[in-house]
Description:
By secondary structure, the protein is an alpha/beta fold.
Amino acid sequence: MRVRSDQVENLKTGKFVSIHGEKQRFFCLITNLSLAVTHPDILLFPPTEDEPLLKELLGKKDIYATATLRPMLAVQKDGTLSPVKTIPPHFAPVTEATRQDIATIFGDENDVSKKYFTIGSPLDMDASVCIDLERLTERSNGIFGKTGTGKTFLTRLVLAGLIHQDKAVNVIFDMHSEYGLQARKEGNNQAFVKGLKTLFPEKVVIFSLDPASTRRRGGQADVDLTLSYSSIAVEDIISLDTELRLNPTAYEAAYLIAAKYKKNWLEVLLSHGDNLKEFANNVGAHPESIAALYRKLKAIERLPFITSGIQTDVITQMMEYIDSGKSIIIEFGNFTSTFCYLLIANIITRRLHTLYIKKTEQFLGSQRSVDEPKKLMITIEEAHKFLNPIAAKQTIFGTIAREMRKYYVSLLVVDQRPSGIDAEILSQIGTKIVAQLNDEKDIAATLTGVNNASQLRTVLGGLESKKQVIVLGHAVAMPVVIQTREYDEKFYTAMMHTMAGKPVKQLIEDIF
Length: 512
Ligand SMILES: Nc1ncnc2c1ncn2[C@@H]1O[C@H](COP(=O)(O)OP(=O)(O)OP(=O)(O)O)[C@@H](O)[C@H]1O
Ligand SMILES: [Mg+2]
């Protein structure tokens, strides 16, 4: 697009525009801006400050700017949307997209289907860009960006949308206790934002590993999360490989113990601290491997929520909540070590996944709609720790990301270092929401398998350092740069509206 020289500064990369062709309109992103002249001599003899008239004259024809537009979607005269297979002709006029255009492309939150959710507005425009929540839940998704760009706020926003519109049940592994009750807002120490439990008390339950911490923050866990030694399988330990750095023979030793002592393998191992050699002989494992295994796993004894003996099974309890449509936040309180986060997330997810496979098979057998499992989305932060190339092959998270919703379970991965995630897993991610990233490797990783990657790369490079993201993939008709929706009082009010589209207060007044 040719841009008049005095208009250059009004345009930005990432801006949303529409080209009016003869037969169709093309929706585009501005992916690049550059200056141009009709003749190189102009640059050799530029107008001086004393020559405003010359400058004005040059501006009429000879100096201008070029905006590179990437057509992403075409709309035919009859309103149907289609992929772009052609280009607009010469001299086709370009205008800003209208609110109506945005609604046609991205859907309208007030649509009866209740599947659209506003996540922000296009750059410099007062309009709502929606994501299609139903399509979002059909795949695993990723939210990426360097630290402080607003990933957690955006994740909370998307989860609120899913919970509000009942599109998926969520299990959130909340390492820093930011999702449930309240979370601090940067900048002003006094400023807090509401958590999901506060917004949806009826639809969210908190499981806490550290109930005392939850109480100190002015809340109350619905369930104190404790797990027994017998709920830890060898697979859970293997998934901690990047933390434990054990020799493969140590894992073989673990399997040998498990072959003999079944579920009690870990407790038995930990009880043999003073006669490891004899124990190694007993199970037929290498004494050094057993000793290494013992040393590393001893850390588990210090975790107060891992207990011996029989107790109520929290995972069954979790499943009951999930069946009744309630989302679960697992708060780690002061147990913020990576070791702990990986261990707990793996144990719980592996068990839930097994239960979901059973449920799915049951549904396939009966084909009754009452048996259909609810869609489950599992949120993990620092996802590269679960899904790096080594872990992705061994852990339950890799399996879930690869099997693509066959069993109604998908992931929402949040990460500041997407290049650490296995490439195959990245290519399976349906919708990506990407904030500013500085590292070239991370940028390249988020754009693997994306059409027009090179153009989007410049757009990504132009994002502001906070609250600006590019959304691309399955849940949006075309890639778009947005200013993220503000997570504030106005948002809370919108979330407290009922499905009838009225505030709860209004509904009560209507009844009486
Ligand atoms: N949608 C939003 N509404 C209101 N404030 C926001 C929003 N997004 C970001 N912020 C502000 O930006 C700050 C940083 O956001 P956030 O904590 O989500 O970053 P992050 O990407 O998760 O960082 P980290 O990688 O360190 O966890 C927040 O504390 C908040 O003040
Ligand atoms: Mg965060």
